[in-house]
Amino acid sequence: MGVTDPAGPVMDRDEVDRALARLGAEHEAIETSLLALQDHAGRRLLEGAELTGVTKERWQAAEASITLLWAYFDAYTDALRSARDIRSRRRWSSREDLVELTELLRGESVTVAGSAHAIANAPTLHGGPSKLSEQFSLVTLVDRMNELYATSLDMVVAADAVWSALPARIDLLAAELQRTRRLAHPVGVRPGEHPAGDDLERITRTLTSLREQVVSDPLAFWIRAEGSTAPGGGKPDTTVYDREARALEDVRREIDAVLTVRQDAETRLVKLRDVLSRADRTLAEARTARTEVLAKIAATEVPVVGGPPTVLQEQLATAAEYRRHAQWHRLSPLLESLEQKAEDELLRARESLTAVTAPLAVRAELRGRLDAYKAKVARHGLAEDSLLVERYDAARRMLWSAPCDLRVAEQAVLRYQHAAAELLAAPRVPDGPQDGRGPGA
Questions:
Q1: In terms of Cα–Cα distance, which of 67, 77, 83, 63 is closest to 31?
Q2: Distance from C-alpha of 73 to C-alpha of 389, rounded to nearest angstrom
Q3: What does DSSP say about strands 110-113 and 133-136: parallel, antiparallel, or unpaired?
Q4: Which pick of 262, 342, 391, 392 has the fewest CB atoms within 10 Å?
Q5: Are the C-beta atoms of residues 369 and 262 closer than 8 Å to each other?
Q6: According to the model, what pLDDT value does residue 427 have?
Q7: pLDDT of 295 above 60
Q8: pLDDT value of residue 438
Q9: Domain extents for the chain?
């Protein structure tokens, strides 16, 4: 087999036929891919959009690449057609035909002359300087077309993915924002009057700006997948959208709280008045009890009982005024604060009453203990014991006299308890003389 330069050894007929079949299949695949790219919705949108930023730059390069792709494909088609024509001249190709086919199929026999604009903007195969015309072998030309197709498709698919995902979601969120605004205004959640109203304005501005940016520069919102080489490998960046969606949900919860206040305001105000009234009554009871304790109990520190805080009554009146003028956004936080303060005030009043009446409770406990021991010794037939009667009477006088000295009275009760305990613990029927007094002791 002869040798030709630079294509290498001359191909035989079988090699030529196999090469033509392979190149024909590649031609069909490339044509199908190019037509699909030409009809891709993302490419049509890119052609008609007013682009900015990184998308504008990459689309200029992609447009040049697509233009160059078709120029390469046309050159590839012409070369393949020429090879097929040579092969079809005769059933058994001559050596001259085989030499020509070898040069055409293996050598750098394809010259592509592109437009200056397309050549200047399209990426080159090895990153070198672009040329106004280039020489390729058919195999190299296929590789070049595959590379340009992959980069162009990647850009188109990425832009289309962002346009398909984000604008529609932004529009849905904007519609939800409008519904929220319609709920907010009647209950006073407006810019400058309520923080949630200011949030609504900020979310509106952010969504408007976000949509404009997404439409004009979709690739600025594209996150490429790590390690992915497939066209369009990645996902839209929804960080800003997600943040504003969460902010809107917070506003909706605030408005729901305000709406709930509007529905339950009267009930909650009535309950607040009741809680504060109970606190006042408890404090009044504590003050009365303190007077009683000071009169009935001696030598005891009795805490001073404070009066009801007027600030809560003033705030309650303010809350009623807010309700009367339908200022629900102001009523909502005030009611929540008042409810907690009212419960705290009732607790404080109850603690004051407990602290003030503690001496009376101690006296009652001592009285109960004295009577309990008296009943116990009576059950054992010791009620008439002179020592017990004497100590019982002494303790009772102290506990039922006014003012009562609790410390002295407690000592008297303890003396009675000890005497009763000693009598109850003494053996009733001793086995023998215990203390020299004989069996009758």
A1: 77
A2: 128
A3: antiparallel
A4: 262
A5: no
A6: 65
A7: yes
A8: 39
A9: 3-157, 160-258, 262-356, 360-425
